[in-house]
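lol so apparently i was supposed to do this last week
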Amino acid sequence: MIPVITAFEKSPDRGRGQARDMRVRWALEEVGQSYDVRLVSFSEMKEAAHRALHPFGQIPTYEEGGLALFESGAIVLHIAERHGGLLPDDAHGRARAITWIFAALNTLEPPIVDRAIAMLVERGETWYEQRLPVVEDRIRVRLAELSSRLGNSDWLDGAFSAGDLLMVTVLRRLNGSDILHEYPNLSAYVARGEARPAFRRAFDAQLAVFAAASTS
Ligand code: GTB
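anyway here it is w/ S-(P-nitrobenzyl)glutathione bound
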């Protein structure tokens, strides 16, 4: 059964792979599972048919046989549990990799998304110039801690795992800012993730969607 995921019909990031279908595509590419993509517009996302799959009217979703999932982290974990290659075989290693999934989504992603939202919707506010450095310093605290834990290792805990996949996608939200470059080992970590053939395939696939939407 080939899974079907949903993605933006026309991503606001112009194909930079920042929307959360990218992490699902990457996970599927890593495990060698082919997939189909159903593209949805912003208005379709809010219709009942899509909300039956995603209560919050967002992408990505994942359908496979009788199973329908939403939440990119849950989808990546499901893929990792169903296929080899994204979680260690030993119970402790597996639990630690899952811990890194939660760390990426619950500890790193919130301040990074906070910055993206501030830049998108708060730019016109009188207090924007005061707030942005505060938000960015909250990110720096977490990046410094992550940088210290990663050290000179290639990946967070032994071999590349779903935890790394999600952490790299979260850190990529800082692409285009100088913040990540303040932590050279984290910049190199993101570059290592982006250099993986599965990442490239996933990135190219989502970019092709944007390119096609731009010419039609
Ligand atoms: N917690 C959910 C998950 O991890 O799956 C969050 C899902 C989510 O935020 N989906 C967004 C969405 O559907 C797309 S990824 N938004 C439409 C809506 O809520 O109406 C977030 C995103 C969007 C755009 C950019 N960008 O342009 O750079 C980056 C990330």
